[in-house]
Amino acid sequence: MLTNSETEQQVAEFLLQIKAIKLQPTNPFTWASGWKSPIYCDNRITLSHPTIRTYIRQQLTSAIQEKFGSVGCIAGVATAGIPQGALVAQEMGLPFIYVRAKAKEHGTGSLIEGEISPGQRVVVIEDLISTGKSSLQAVKALRDAGYTVAGLAAIFSYGFDIAEENFKEAKCPFITLSNYNALLKYAEEHQYISAADTDVLKQWRTQPSTWGQ
């Protein structure tokens, strides 16, 4: 079995290899929030690569079993967490549900799609953690519906302090397969970026909301 460090580096390698993560310190991206960023992450691209998709599914499953023990259901966060969650649920032989960003405006008006018994112990699946806001909205929706949320698992985290604080306040433990520090380590060692680029990327992580302004 791989150590956590080995998993972090392998996932970082995969994400860079298929350009699910792009690093552009001199030509930053603009996020939907308006933040300027030298990094862009789209883990949905992993779904188009069967070997990588399988590795992520297996590692998420192992991490969930190790961290959270026995669970009764997997819940995906719409939209990017839905396919990842469904893959993990299939691997674990568990029911799958997903949580919408907001309730349907027609039909049943559902916020949670799928059917499991109240009181079930659920692990939430996300593809990416930035501030944790959307993830924790899903956690709250599940708790409000009567489910016990054991925690959350994701592929990658930017490692923002605000995310740590938000999850702590919500009393929701979380795990990720890889993270920003592991990514920078791998990217510099394998010449995706220079030492100067690494400094810029580290600076951004300390003040992401005002960086580049």
Count up the helices.
7
Distance between the termini: 44 Å
Helix/strand-derived category reads alpha/beta
As a whole number of angstroms, the C-alpha radius of gyration is 17 Å
Instruction: Give unreliable regions as ranges.
Output: none
Query: What share of residues are in beta strands?
Result: 15-25%
How do the strands line up in the largest sheet? 7-6-5-8-9-10
Helicity, as a percent range:
40-55%
Report the strand count: 10
Overall geometry comes to globular
Describe this structure in words.
With 213 residues, the protein is an alpha/beta fold. The chain is built from seven helices and ten strands. The protein has helices at 4-17, 50-68, 81-92, 133-144, 161-169, 180-189, 195-206, and strands at residues 21-23, 29-30, 36-37, 39-41, 73-77, 96-99, 112-113, 121-129, 148-157, 174-179. The strands form three sheets. The protein has a six-stranded mixed beta sheet with strand order 7-6-5-8-9-10, sandwiched between helices. Strands 1-4 form a two-stranded antiparallel ribbon. Strands 2-3 form a two-stranded antiparallel sheet. The chain is globular. The model has no long low-confidence stretch (mean pLDDT 94).
Question: Briefly, what is this?
Answer:
The chain is built from 7 helices and 10 strands. The chain has helices at residues 4-17, 50-68, 81-92, 133-144, 161-169, 180-189, 195-206, and strands spanning 21-23, 29-30, 36-37, 39-41, 73-77, 96-99, 112-113, 121-129, 148-157, 174-179. Helix 2 (50-68) crosses helix 3 (81-92).
